[in-house]
């Protein structure tokens, strides 16, 4: 059968889709690029934010209009199943932890609404990007207490995958020509927490020790679990194979709000982790997440967030306006005036943009190496240096550079990317690392 798929959401969701489509391809099904050409339509959904959930429901409604079998996979299945049924009563639904059996949904029309106790490693892949391997290292949420988050409901009980299996998945991916390994999960910080502490530093060192010419990007990590192992984490990040990129969500600069969010850490814990990582890796790229307009956030709390941002100066901030998610404790709280939430979001976005621009301007004049790992929407080559900063190269066709390590000179800066001149393309034997 011919399969058309749309994929939304986080790296873990993209990995699920790659596995599902890989399994279907191996079973003889054809993946097509247009819904008109397909026998079956699949949408891999995300519901972590309400605007995203609304978009998923809109896409489900539009896909249903094709009159073909529709399979709804991803987090909306356990998160908001009633809304899906209201829009597409005949849709086949697949739980994100049942994705390895998606062939049953395709070939038999069977819904798989319950999670499986499966390890999503060792399966064939239909990669979105042929040089990037997104490798899940765990499933579910270990903390499960955050007042605003729907992930515990959508992804289920926590389970770390065996390190040996992760290592073998990396080795297989490198043999297949992959140049970047993205270690991903709902929370990288909790990897191996069943042992009593985060085993993330050990995992990074293990993967970095594998032979081959590849680079490692570590996904989002909860400060709660990283704080006790922050020195070991910084040590692991020193490997030449590890992108110096830290995604550490703080969510608020107010300890009061963090308590009410039930995050399990303080602003001071967040800052100590950042200080430790920057003391060992001064140029590390810091990305964080902030929720604006949590129902108990007053003006003082918001000002505390601004002070933290202006002090820490993150390179990237994922700013989300608060929207209640179904089944969460925060759903019961009285929301703030949407106009006030919008005002705060606008203020913080402007501050974040200015900080990002100033941070990037420090890179003007830099010469060094980067790997071209993406082709932009306008066909431009996008490269990443060792700090994972996006570098736009416009003076050579992107497809000629894709997957290659190049030497560039940064000529100008924008808030969220650097603009570079291509100096040369390196030969495979010439350089083993980017710097």
Keyphrases for this structure?
single chain; 435 residues; alpha/beta; five-stranded parallel β-sheet; five-stranded mixed barrel; globular
What do these coordinates show?
There is one protein chain. About 35% of the residues lie in helices and about 20% in strands. With about 425 residues, it is an alpha/beta fold. The chain has a five-stranded parallel beta sheet, with helices on both faces. Strands 14-15-16-18-17 form a five-stranded mixed beta barrel. A hairpin with a 5-residue loop joins strand 15 and strand 16. The relative contact order is 0.08.
Topology:
Elements: E1 2-7, H1 11-26, E2 30-32, E3 40-45, H2 50-64, E4 69-74, H3 76-79, H4 81-87, E5 92-94, H5 102-108, E6 132-136, E7 138-139, H6 151-155, E8 159-160, H7 163-175, E9 180-184, H8 200-208, E10 215-218, H9 223-226, H10 230-237, E11 245-247, H11 255-261, H12 267-280, E12 285-292, H13 299-312, E13 316-321, H14 338-361, E14 367-375, E15 381-384, E16 390-393, H15 398-401, E17 405-414, E18 417-425
Parallel strand pairs: 1-2, 1-3, 3-4, 4-5, 6-9, 9-10, 11-12, 12-13, 16-18
Antiparallel strand pairs: 7-8, 14-15, 14-17, 15-16, 17-18
Total helices: the number is 15
Biggest β-sheet: count, sense, barrel?
5 strands, parallel
- Dominant shape: globular
Mean pLDDT: 96
Radius of gyration: 22 Å
State the end-to-end CA separation. Answer: 46 Å
Our estimate of the beta-strand percent is 15-25%
Summarize the structure.
The protein is α/β, with parallel strands linked by helices and 435 residues long.
């Amino acid at each position: 059968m011919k399969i058309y798929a749309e994929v939304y959401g986080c790296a873990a969701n993209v990995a699920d889709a790659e596995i599902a489509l890989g399994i279907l391809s191996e079973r003889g099904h054809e993946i097509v690029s247009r819904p008109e050409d397909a026998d079956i339509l699949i949408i891999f959904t995300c519901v972590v934010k309400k605007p995203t959930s609304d978009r998923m429901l809109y896409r489900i409604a539009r896909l249903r209009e094709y009159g073909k079998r529709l399979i709804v996979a991803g987090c909306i299945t356990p998160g908001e199943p009633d809304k899906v049924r209201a829009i597409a009563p005949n849709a086949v639904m697949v739980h994100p932890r049942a994705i390895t059996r998606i062939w049953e949904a395709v070939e038999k029309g069977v819904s798989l609404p319950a999670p499986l106790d499966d390890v999503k490693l060792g399966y064939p892949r239909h990669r979105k990007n042929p040089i990037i391997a997104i490798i899940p290292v765990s499933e579910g949420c270990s903390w499960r207490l955050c007042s605003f988050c729907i992930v515990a409901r959508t992804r289920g009980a926590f389970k770390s995958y065996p390190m040996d299996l992760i290592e073998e998945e990396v080795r297989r991916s490198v043999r297949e020509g992959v140049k970047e390994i993205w270690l991903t999960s709902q929370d990288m910080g909790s990897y191996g927490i069943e042992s009593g502490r985060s085993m993330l530093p050990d995992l990074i060192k293990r993967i970095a020790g594998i032979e081959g010419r590849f680079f490692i990007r570590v996904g989002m990590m909860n400060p709660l679990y990283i704080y006790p192992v922050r020195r070991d984490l910084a040590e692991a990040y020193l490997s030449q194979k590890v992108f110096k990129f830290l995604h550490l969500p703080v969510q608020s600069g107010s300890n009061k709000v963090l308590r009410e969010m039930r995050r399990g850490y303080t602003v001071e814990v967040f800052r100590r982790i950042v200080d430790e990582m920057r003391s060992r890796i001064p140029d590390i790229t810091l990305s964080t997440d902030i929720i604006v307009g949590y129902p108990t956030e007053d003006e003082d709390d918001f000002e505390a967030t601004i002070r933290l941002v202006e002090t820490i100066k993150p390179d990237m901030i994922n700013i989300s306006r608060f929207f209640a998610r179904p089944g969460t404790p925060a759903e019961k709280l009285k929301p703030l005036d949407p106009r006030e939430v919008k005002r705060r979001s606008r203020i913080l976005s402007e501050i974040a943009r200015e900080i990002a621009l100033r941070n990037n301007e420090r890179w003007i004049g830099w010469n060094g190496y980067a790997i071209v790992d993406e082709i932009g929407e306008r066909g431009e080559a996008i490269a990443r240096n060792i700090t994972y900063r996006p570098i736009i190269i416009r003076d050579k066709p992107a497809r000629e550079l894709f997957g290659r390590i190049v030497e560039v000179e940064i000529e100008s800066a924008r808030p969220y990317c650097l603009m570079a001149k291509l100096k040369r393309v390196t030969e495979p034997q010439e350089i083993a690392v980017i710097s």
